[in-house]
Amino acid sequence: MSSNAPNWNRRDVMRALPLTASAWAFLCGSRAVAHKFYFSSTQVDYNPATASFEITIRLFADDLELVLARRADRKVEVDRTPDAEALTFAYLRDVLRLRGPDMREIPASWVGMETKVDTVYCYLEAPAPPSGLRNMALAFGLFTELQRGQVNLVSFRDPIHGRPRDLMFREGDRFKVVIFPEPEEAPSQNP
Amino acid sequence: MRSLSFIFLLVLLLSDSAYTQRWKPGDDIFRQLDEVLPTPNEYRTASGAPGHRYWQQKVDYDIRLDLDDQNQSIQASETITYHNQSPDSLNYLWLQLDQNRFKQDSHAKLTQTAPNLKSRPSYRLMEALLDQDFDGGHKIQAVKDAAGKPLPYVIQDTMMRIDLPKPLTSGERVQFSVEWRYNIVDVKKIGARGGYEFFKDDGNYIYEIAQWFPRMAAYTDYTGWQHKQFLGAGEFTLEFGDYKVAITVPDDHIVGATGVLQNPDKVLTATQRQRLQQAKGASKPVLVVTPEEAVANERNKPAGKKTWIFHAENVRDFAFASSRKFIWDAQEHDVEGNKVMAMSYYPKEGNPLWERYSTRSIIHTLNVYSRYSFRYPYPVAISVNGPVGGMEYPMICFNGPRPEKDGTYSDRTKYGLISVIIHEVGHNFFPMIVNSDERQWTWMDEGLNTFLQYLSEQEWEEKYPSRRGEPKEIVDYMTSQQQEPIMTQSDSVLQLGPNAYAKPATALNILRETILGRELFDFAFREYSRRWMFKRPIPADFFRTMEDASGVDLDWFWRAWFYTTDHVDISLESLDWYTIDTRNPDVEKTRLKQMREEEPVTLSMRRNQPLPKFVEQYPELLDFYNNFDKLNVTPKDREDYEKVLRGLQDQEKAILNSHSNFFVMKFKNIGGVPMPIILDITFTDGAKQQLRIPAEIWRRNRREVSKLLITPREIQSIVLDPNLETADADLNNNHWPPKPVKTRFQIFKEERQKNPMQIQQELEKVTQQ
Ligand SMILES: [Zn+2]
Fold it and tell me: Which residues in chain A have Cβ-Cβ distances shorter than 8 Å to B119?
């Protein structure tokens, strides 16, 4: 390298910080009629800023209408029946249960719901202990009374303690504890 | 082993955990795929085309059946002509008896796990559970050779082996006959791909008849006999052939079936025949049986029986529907020169949805699918409304959605109907014509079909609410831990919907839009469809053809999307900025001064500034250093610079004065799936640039790469994957400067309509009820 070779000036730019929290989008299941699958997906986010669990449940509208109609003994349409929201909350309160590290149940409060064609998003919130999702337990028997092989998948996000493993609930499942994976060794550089 | 599916699952789970320990997301993704794919041979070439000695069997059926509307059963007999076009001699033949799935002691039933009896069951469910004496299954009454002599046979659950008196050598054919009967299942009770529906109000039935005749299992070059049992999820693997089917039903029934009606003079009225004639060249569906006529038929008592004869060429299956409730409409449509009769059969309960959308949806599907694959080759295409939610057969499909009793319908029902018709009619292309092995690979027909369904829906109307296809919709499944690779046998997939429909459909959409571009992709996809129409491809044929025809090595893509459960998450880790030192002291020292001035003033500095200073009181204490600024340009600096310049060529001088900015962007592949890096870059002068870097940037380092951008401009911000085209799971690490992304929950909470008090009041009412 000759002394006349150019030199670099290193300039300052704000460094982009790597963020560990993961944004979450929703899964598509199947249209209600074509090769029906019985499936729901739920995201539970621990929000340390508000000390709460933010819960988003994605389910099929026709499954919900079937269950609500049976409970209320009348026809329920999620986008037309006036008290559909209250009926939904009353139902979800029965099937979605959270238990804190002290084994006490934590009641969830209702945030709301929205319907997108054949899919319903339900939003609930629950107070979170400072330990976040650590040692929390969850039971989720959504639509299992319909006995059609329902699978309810729950994913978690905890920006403080890491990402716990997903939990899967099927007929007959009771409380399951949120498990954090063992810390993995740092990924090795590829040669 | 086949029947013990739980062992299979256990092995899968065990090997899965071993797999996750060894495997780090993204490892070895660029390793070539040849070691995984079967070795090419003279039947299947390395280019993914059928080889010069490709073969498949041919099976012709001549069937007569009697549909009993009193007891909901079928009595039938068939003559099967089996052409052994394989190079092998066959000592026995395997047939499929799909109805045996409904026997009380079937593998499907025995391996069902217990339902939850703790919660309140529905009457329908109790009815199904208590229905322990439904006598389901094929009752084989006779199996005879061409001379009428009985042939020995053995039934193994849903499969039947017929032992031949002498081996059937290559190129020979054998003819034999089977007689059987079976009780038709109540679809609303049992949930099946065919059966009957009873209408209490008028006492009539709709029959949607499928999996109804003993039919040949496929014999193939890659797996021999495909006789994995029918357990419910893995659908059908079948041979092509010609069918002649004589369907005897009550004489007031209307029958729709695979194939072309051979005796309209015998079974249709003159008016009906004339209306069918009108449907040729019609610009909208013509009613062959009007709603009024159908309602009148409902009150009918049949006077006797009629036999409808259908003929179908080069199909892999045969299904039909029959009812006195049917309204029937028809419209002939020219599909790239092939005149196809598009027809719908539905009860009054299907209107007003069906008269408006069914036949039109068929026509739309034929148009779009033909453009992306091959011209629809069959003479008819039919959609039937009955008890089955959605199921496909050659030329005919069954679709469930109906409006409310009052004739109103939700957008969910409307789009549900259009989508399911597109989907099921679309199955004519995959797997009815591109005849993949459904029992083995659900994704090969459902994934490809769902992909074309998405394209068709988006061509139906703007912003059609497609459920699958958009990359962002698959993120949730791909980041979940409860999944298998797409390359998993049909009955072992835990969530068939996302695994075999949505994920492959999304992968193909991404391949088309982001990796290959529409021109390369569409050519390759059409090539695959045409190479394999009326033949039986396996996954390697698809993977190889897509590469062969596009000229792009996609091994990494297949490996990442079809053979792993990794997801996409690429992060923009950092941005470093470099410029060239011009050596010019007037430029460089000014720049350094400017940087010094931009240094932040600390709180103490600011507060100390107005304080009286000691040296101000005693100016004699000030010396050289109090006035010296090393960033002032000195004559010596300028002299040195002149000296440097004298030693440089003009070219080198130009480089020093190029005013270029060098930006180094660092990226991490967190999810494991390597994807193109797509960047929207905004500069401080307002200019914008999109940079698209192919996924091969990851080929030497799967985890971390950097990219240099040289520009006279300065960067203000960067967005990674700005058009959401890669299914990137975490958008929080896609921005520079960093920008947190709100969750769906947070967005909703900010915009929600009802306040919690209103909900609380309603809730109290509900709980008191
Ligand atoms: Zn399908």
Answer: 141, 144-145
Partners of B76 in the β-ladder: B65, B180
**Beta carbons of A120 and B447 less than 8 angstroms apart:** no
A1 and chain B: CB distance < 8 Å anywhere?
no
Quote the DSSP letter at residue B764.
Answer: H
- Whether B703 and A190 lie within 8 Å, measured CB to CB: yes
- Point out the residue among A9, A85, A111 whose CB comes nearest to the CB of B762: A85
| pLDDT for res B105 | 82
Pick among B499, B668, B766, B769 to test the A interface (most A CBs inside 10 A): B766
Where exactly are the structural domains of chain B? 58-435
How far B401 CA lies from chain A's nearest CA (Å)?
Answer: 7
User: Which whole number is the average pLDDT over B414-443?
Assistant: 96
Per-residue pLDDT at B604 exceeds 50: yes
Query: Tens digit of pLDDT for each residue in B4-46?
Result: 333 333 333 333 443 444 446 657 889 889 889 999 999 999 9
So what's the architecture of B58-435 in CATH? Answer: Sandwich (2.60)
Distance, C-alpha A12 to centroid of its chain: 40
**Model confidence over B219-240: pLDDT tens digits?**
999 999 999 988 877 889 999 9
Greatest alpha-carbon span in chain A: 89
Closest residue in chain A to residue B580, using alpha carbons only: A8
Q: Which of B388-402, B553-567, B578-592, B691-705 has the lowest mean pLDDT?
A: B578-592
Q: CB of B749 within 8 A of CB of B601?
A: no
The string of pLDDT tens digits covering residues B693-712 is 999 999 988 899 999 999 99
Sheet arrangement for strand B704-711: A8-11, B570-580, B661-669, B704-711
- Say if residue A18's pLDDT is above 50: no
Tokens of A104: 């006490």
| Residues 99-138 (A) with a CB less than 8 A from some CB of B | 109-112, 114, 116-119, 121, 123, 125
Rounded to the nearest angstrom, the distance between the alpha carbon of B60 and the centre of ligand 1 is 26
In which element (H, E) is residue B452 found?
helix B443-460
